[in-house]
Amino acid sequence: MREKELIEIIKVLRNYEEAADALLELQNLNPKLACTISREILEAKKGDVYFQASALDTLYSLDLGALTLFINANLKDLEHYLILTLLDNLSGDSAIIKDNNLILSLVKKLKKYLKQENSNSESNYSIDWFLETYKSIYI
Length: 139
Hints:
73% of the residues lie in helices and 0% in strands. It is mainly alpha-helical.
């Protein structure tokens, strides 16, 4: 599909799954534009939480710095599913944490957040996996 068609599918949002697929395809065609659109989706809370999670995944893959800024500003207001998506991404990157200060800062921020929210959160595979993966990282 051409870039213009992909953008139209994402902007119109008739079908969230189709829009998420278009965002993924746009990520390969024009990564810079995919980052910009992903930030817009997250900031405006466009679509459902699953569509927003695809935008979070895109931003995580392409511009961790922009995602870090977004998380720093919005962590307390994020949907639980988006936090779980971020935890899964971070857990998958545990082998490169020593080489990436942005990942380290996100891990510390999320560990602190989870500790504060512990009384309100129920156990879940993503949370347990994240905490086990990064048990040696102190906040």
